Structures are given as structure tokens and as C-alpha cells.
């Protein structure tokens, strides 16, 4: 089954949105297979955001993302990367459509509540950065017979 890495950022944790956000993915039919609270150490932030470390906003991004605990997750489902990116919405919450997580719960690009991998390759890379294989569970959800044809 396809996998992705999702992470509720410190603003989402502080604002009490963890449950609301997890509920959206659960109700869609996606399956959480790993989850943990963690304040990210600097080396993992550098690895996770390797493509952005030279950008002008990176110092602010690093300060924000390490400002408190994040809730890190691995989720499974058919075509999950595309589905979760659509559910998360545009990077800038001011441009994110209503009904998306960023559209409904955030105001500015520097505090946009949640991260989601943007491709299958990125998902595999990000899961490997943040989770050991033994932290990821495997189980069948009882409703799968009514989610997949
Ligand atoms: P996304 O999180 O939608 O994949 P991204 O990978 O382009 O977006 O950027 C990673 C994060 O960096 C993004 O969630 C918020 C921050 N960011 C991106 N562009 C920014 C900008 N122009 N100013 C401030 N923060 C920015
Ligand atoms: Mg990205």
C-alpha cells in the first residue's frame, strides 16, 4: 500500500488541532500506521528541509519547526500522497481552498499547521529520516472491505 509522512507542526499542536486533523484523514479512509510526539532535533530539520536550507525563509522556518513538539505520522492508503496533499491545501494558507486543512485552520505561510510529503520518493525519504522500521505497525482496518473495490 502507498505511504506518506505527515507531521502536525508546533502551531497545530499548540492550538489543539491534532485530533481534528487526524479525524479528517481517518474519516477519509486512510490508515495511520505510526505516530509520535517529538521536538525535532536540528540535524533532522536540516535533512528534512534539505531543499530549503539556502532559502531566505529557512532561519524562520527552523526556529518555528523546533519551537515545540510536532506530531509525526506515517499513513497508508491508495494514492495517499496525492490525496493528502489535496486535503492539506496550498502552501500559503491565504491561497488554500476552504475545506482544506490549511484553508480552514491557518492564516500565514510561516505557520501552516501541517507538513505532507509531495511525492512517493519524498515520502520514502522522509519516513526514513523520522521513523525506524520497527516503529511502523501493520494491521488491517475493519472498514477496508468497504473502502476498496
Ligand atoms: P509545502 O509545505 O507545501 O510542501 P514547501 O515544501 O515549498 O511547501 O515549503 C516547506 C515549508 O517552508 C512550507 O510549508 C512553509 C515554508 N515556506 C515555504 N515557502 C515560504 C516562504 N516564501 N516564506 C516563508 N515560509 C515558506
Ligand atoms: Mg514540501
From TrEMBL:
CDD domains from the UniProt entry: NDPk_I
GO biological process, one term: UTP biosynthetic process
GO molecular function terms noted in the UniProt entry: ATP binding; metal ion binding; nucleoside diphosphate kinase activity
Residue stretches making up the Nucleoside diphosphate kinase-like domain: 1-138
SUPFAM superfamilies given in the database record: Nucleoside diphosphate kinase, NDK
UniProt key word Transferase: yes
Keywords: ATP-binding, Cytoplasm, Kinase, Magnesium, Metal-binding, Nucleotide metabolism, Nucleotide-binding, Phosphoprotein, Transferase
Protein known as: Nucleoside diphosphate kinase
Species the sequence originates in: Methanogenium organophilum
Organism lineage: Archaea, Methanobacteriati, Methanobacteriota, Stenosarchaea group, Methanomicrobia
Gene designation: ndk
Amino acid at each position: 500500500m502507498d505511504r506518506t509522512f505527515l507531521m502536525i507542526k508546533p502551531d497545530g499542536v499548540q492550538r489543539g488541532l491534532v485530533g481534528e486533523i487526524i479525524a479528517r484523514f481517518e474519516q477519509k479512509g486512510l490508515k495511520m500506521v505510526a505516530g509520535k510526539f517529538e521536538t525535532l532535533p536540528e540535524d533532522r530539520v536540516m535533512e528534512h528541509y534539505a531543499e530549503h536550507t539556502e532559502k531566505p525563509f529557512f532561519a524562520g522556518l527552523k526556529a518555528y519547526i523546533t519551537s515545540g513538539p510536532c506530531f509525526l505520522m506515517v499513513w497508508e492508503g491508495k494514492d495517499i500522497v496525492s490525496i493528502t496533499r489535496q486535503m492539506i491545501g496550498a502552501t500559503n494558507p491565504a491561497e488554500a481552498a476552504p475545506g482544506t486543512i490549511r484553508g480552514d485552520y491557518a492564516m500565514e505561510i510561516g505557520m501552516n499547521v501541517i507538513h505532507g510529503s509531495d511525492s512517493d520518493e519524498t515520502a520514502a525519504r522522509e519516513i526514513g529520516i523520522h521513523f525506524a522500521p520497527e516503529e511502523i505497525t501493520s494491521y488491517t482496518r475493519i472498514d477496508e472491505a468497504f473502502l476498496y473495490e
